[in-house]
Each structure stands twice: as structure tokens, then as C-alpha cells.
Design goal:
With about 160 residues, the chain is of the alpha+beta class. It contains 4 helices and 8 strands; from the N terminus they run ββααββββββαα. α1 packs across α2 and α2 crosses α4. It starts with 5 loop residues before the first strand and ends with a helix. The model has no long low-confidence stretch (mean pLDDT about 95).
Amino acid sequence: MTNKIEISKDLANRKLNITRAFNAPVEKVWKAWTDSSLLEKWWAPRPWRAITKTMDFSEGGHWLYCMAGPNGEKAWCLVNYKAIDPQKSFTNKSDFCDENGNIDANFPSMNWLNKFKSTDTGSMMEITISFDKDGDLEKIIEMGFEGGFTMGLNNLDELLES
């Protein structure tokens, strides 16, 4: 069964709301979000791939990774983990950066709240991404976030089935 992603934009409050069901238990979905060896298998939209430089999934920890393109392109990102409620939710701030984690102020910061819930057929993810400034949500959309993240979550679905 294919689970459809739902993305709604709340421009007035600078938020993206995303829901996605998976035919896998919360524990398995949680692990795919919190273990770098699994994240690398699904996070990037193909033919791009995610490569972890460092990851410490803990409150105050971070994930420094790049999205590597098929022609040698690299886009670096730093995810700073804020609060973690195991198997239920975590929050983080995500920024574009250089390979050493120095944040690039030319790109918007994204504040993520990821919630995980059990369902009769597996699990449900509810993600809220909020932005600090007006125009930031629109900039992320223009950069192709919706299509890229949809592809990533479809990759996650394939990984969970394997």
C-alpha cells in the first residue's frame, strides 16, 4: 500500500505541516530518522545521496551531512537536536552550512517538530517546520523542498519495506 504525503502551507504563521503514514511500527520509523547509517539510505532525493560527516542524536547533539549530487555537487547541512522524547517526538533546527558546520546566513533556518504515532496499520508522522522570518518558507519551497522531501519519504517507505 502506498502512503501519500500531505503538505499544507500556513504562510501567515510561517509553517509547513506535513503528514505521512508508514506501514511499519513507530520503532522502525524512529530508527530510520535517528541512525545515520539508515538516514543516508533515504534522506536525499535520488540520484543525490546523503553522506554523514558526524552525528550525535542526543539533546544538544547534531548531524552534519552533505547532499552529494551525481556530478560532484555538495550541499552541506547542520541539524542541531533540541528536545527528544524517544519513540514520540524530537525537535531540531536545520541550517545550510559549509563542511565545517559554519551556518550560511543566505539560506533560511528550518525549525522542525517531528511527531511519531502508532496506528492500526503501522505509524503516522506529523512534521511541523516553522521559519523565523517572512519569506523564508517561500524560499525553501522555491528551492524544491516539497518535491525533494516527498522523494525522500518515498525512499524511506522503500527502506522500511525491505
